Amino acid sequence: MDRSRSKTGKANMDILGRGMLLHKVKGGGMLYPRKFILDTKNMVLRYEGSEKRLRRKKTSWSISKIREVREGEKDYSKRLDPFDRGRCLAVIFGANHDVLYLYADNYEERDMWLKGLRFAKHIDQYMDQKEQADRWVREAFNMADKNNDGSLDFEEIMKLLKQLNADLDRKYVQQMFDKADTRRIKGEKPTLDREEFVKKARNRGTLLKMTVPEDQVKDYIGAYEPQKQLQLDDHMSTIGFRVLLASQDQQLFNPAHRRVYQDMTQPLTHYFINSSHNTYLTEDQLKGPSKVEAYITALTRGCRCVELDCWDGSDNEPVIYHGYTLTSKIYFRDVISAIKDYAFQSSPYPVILSIENHCSVKQQAVMADYLRTILGDLLYAPEQIPDEIPSPSDLKGKIVLKGKKLGSSSRIISNEEDVGEVSDEDEAAENNEQIEKEKKSKNLKLSPEFSDVIGLKAIGFRDGIFVSLGENKVIKMIENEPENVNKLSQKMLVRTYPAGSRTDSSNYNPIPMWNTGCQVGDLFKEKRSLSRYGSGKTLKLTIISGYQIPKPKDTTKGEVIDPFIKVEIHGVRADTKQVKTSVIQNNGFNPRWDEVVNFTITTPQLAVVRFAIYDSDRYVDDFIGYYVLPFTSMQEGYRQFPLFTKQGDKLPQTKILVHVEIKEI
């Protein structure tokens, strides 16, 4: 049975490797037939058959960029509405969840692609470091092979090295080229084929010489040296050393902190909560699109509090969008269905739905019905709000609504009871005097059915446990009365959000809010009172070297980059500091700094360390990537860390090597 299944799976992968007709689904219900190929040797999904020769467009995707492969029935795109969703699949790429929609000719072929893509994704995830490096080199080779003949001549190699940010002497490259060209045919133009190039790239130099205790040497060789004979001889090859450097053992971030390691039995007010503002928007705040996919993106990134701005829609269907703007609308029911499917993929702890309720009583009842029927037992809706604030452990696996709630003898919430809470929609309305005047002249009528599904009461300072404060208001409070803000956060959850003027979706700096105890920000970790943070630390950080640092995204400059690193400490005012390394000229491939920076950190539990890499420029330095981690999650010794783009995508193969020493003050 298993053997038969294995043969069937291999046969299916062979079919997908040769290519199969699928249809790209575009907006407006358009279908474009293309031959799609699942190339498991180079680990890419690609297609052939596009007739738009003069237009630059993406025809291949790295398997490593696939976040999810989803059945059409489980997708929420309106573009699939004209089709049989059972024959559709959606391939989701990158941290921003870009989606490729595909339509198969029948169910059998759709299922073959679903299984094949998921299997390829599984293979990619469990590649060892050597295989990952080889794949990256092959991708670079394919990028340089413009005529697709499977080989590169010397001039193409020189162009590729420049693309890889390696500014090498031409004579030296010629020597390496001649040495690698083992299959040269007399009378023909010298070239390197893909495997010759990969083999030569495997033997390139390493980043540093590392001294380790003698008793650890055998353990490292046994764990990371791929060649058995070298293991027996107690030797480590260059490849083995690179595998060691890139391993989990050598990460800067403490792997034990990848799971929740704090006490999660304290009241919710004792924790910082990863939060998202206007979650549904994917671009700007005035006319950009609203997408259900944005909620999936936020939840799979670990967000535990998402926002839903709810308004009356046509045909008695509540919708979500940014009120008083031209942003598009999505159905409330679709968002709730997506939240149910993805709420607990990244964490078992509760998800809070921050409801901005602008619906009529009639459509509030519709929302309440959707919440109960779609979420079922996942919904936390106690008949009586408990006297004590529940803990994350109490609410494990639960979805909790934060919003207005009726009192025992009330069926209308008046403006007077709203004192102290300003929602983002209220703040947006302040920019329009007529809208603000209309809002002040009305009471918000609340459906009893909707009130009954609220788990966290948000009324104001005098009542409830959840208060929202706009950026400008909370900054003034922190400047004038920081102790009072901290006291407030000890008895209720304080949510802060960007000012309404940030129409470009830029973000404010949340560190001052976190420092005074405002919980609903961008991190999820335990919070203690400010008087019990313990002793300070000193951090000695040696920035050693970098590896395969790419050019800035969308750069038009052709030259090799001149990288430098900015190291920043964010925390209480006394700890906030930043330093820069020197600029390494013309080398993004393997720049070396060997520079030491020192920091004194008085409040380690609130300190965040950020590394930002730039390409030095005469006018404006170009951002390349960053890495951020809590100070308390740093490991000492020789360590490496990756880089991420602004969108949250990991830069493939890029590494920065450092040495860390931490001491008590």
UniProtKB/TrEMBL annotation:
Compositionally biased region (Acidic residues): 416-430
Key words, A-Z: Calcium, Hydrolase, Lipid degradation, Lipid metabolism, Transducer
SMART domains associated with the record: C2 (SM00239), EFh (SM00054), PH (SM00233), PLCXc (SM00148), PLCYc (SM00149)
UniProt cross-references to SUPFAM superfamilies, sorted A to Z: C2 domain (Calcium/lipid-binding domain, CaLB), EF-hand, PH domain-like, PLC-like phosphodiesterases
C2 domain location: 519-645
InterPro entries on file: C2_dom, C2_domain_sf, EF-hand-dom_pair, EF_Hand_1_Ca_BS, EF_hand_dom, PH-like_dom_sf, PH_domain, PI-PLC_fam
Name of protein: Phosphoinositide phospholipase C
